[in-house]
Amino acid sequence: MLRTILFFAELAFSLIGLTPKLKTARDLRKTNPRASFLYASKVAHRWVQPKLKLIGADFYVLGKENIPPEPTPCVFIGNHQSEFDFAMMLGLIDKPLGFVAKKELLRYPFLRDWMKMANCTFIDRSTPRRAMEAILEGIENVRQGYTMVIYPEGTTSSGGDMLPFKPGAFKLATKPEAIIVPVVIEGSHQLFDLSRPKRPRVWMSFLPVVETKGLTKEEMAQVPVRVETMIKNEQERLKELETTKDFQKYQDYRQEIV
Fold it and tell me: Which is nearest to 173 in space by CA: 207, 205, 135?
């Protein structure tokens, strides 16, 4: 728990040191929004990755081969166990991306500014109309070739058990007929637990892509259930690895944080 607090404190303080790079991103955005997005994403990756050491956890990443190479955009759709999930996405894979994030993050000036440079959208769930505004903004980002991340549970799940997915979140991918990459997080919820293991294992698994282009109306309607089922089954498999100690077979997937 203390290590997790130190991680977020370090992230917050180190943001101030990135002020000159933020100015560079803003200047780029005036003439070349794509270059600004790529620059901001690269800075974010290099900013977060080394700080993952502070967590004191072992990170295992499976299925990297399922991530479309640049410049192919996609929509990452996954379960959401803790506020730490965004750091794993930024630090453990090197693909430019933006998030559909909760509007409360707009309260934090430096973080807010960087997220805007990365084409993040901020969702207000006070009314369905306002929530859809953020989704529509994200859809436009995807249509323009930007990769986005969304967590259809709408909030973090207590104890790591998945909450029902909100079907509306899938419009982020189905409307622009984008590739969906289901992503499974298992174990990040324990990072905030006072009784956590001394060195917990945290898993991130990228599943085979789900194509949405050219689907019939009936097939498109099945996409949310299909993806949710894929994620739930993989999460259960990862939990089973922990209880049976079969995780030892996956040592090659353990990420060395440099």
Answer: 135
* Rounded distance between C-alpha atoms, residue 203 and residue 235, angstroms: 9
Contact 89, 239 (CB under 8 A): no
Each residue of 132-188: pLDDT tens digit? 999 999 999 999 999 999 999 988 886 778 999 999 999 999 999 999 999 999 999
Total domains in the fold of the chain: 1
Q: What is the DSSP string of 98-161?
A: EEEEEGGGGGSHHHHHHHHHTT-EEE-TTSHHHHHHHHHHHHHHHHTT--EEE-TTSSPPGGGP
Q: What is the CATH number of the domain that holds 143?
A: 3.40.1130
In this predicted structure, the answer to whether residue 105 has a pLDDT above a threshold of 80 is yes
Report how far residue 176's alpha carbon sits from residue 247's, in angstroms, rounded to the nearest whole number: 37
Distance of CA 88 to the CA centre of its chain: 7
- 111 falls within a domain: yes
Q: Which residue has the tokens 């003439």?
A: 31
Domain that holds residue 108: 2-253
CA–CA separation, 246 and 145 (whole Å):
39
- Phi, psi of 237, rounded to the nearest 5 degrees: -65, -40
Asked whether residue 141 is assigned to any structural domain, the reply reads yes
Asked whether residue 258 is assigned to any structural domain, the reply reads no
Report CA-CA distances (Å) from 40 to 20, 138, 180: 12, 17, 23
Q: Give the separation between CA 247 and CA 83, rounded to whole angstroms.
A: 24
pTM, to two decimals: 0.94
Residue 124 burial (10 A CB sphere; 0-12, 13-18, 19+): middle
**Single-letter amino acid, residue 7:** F
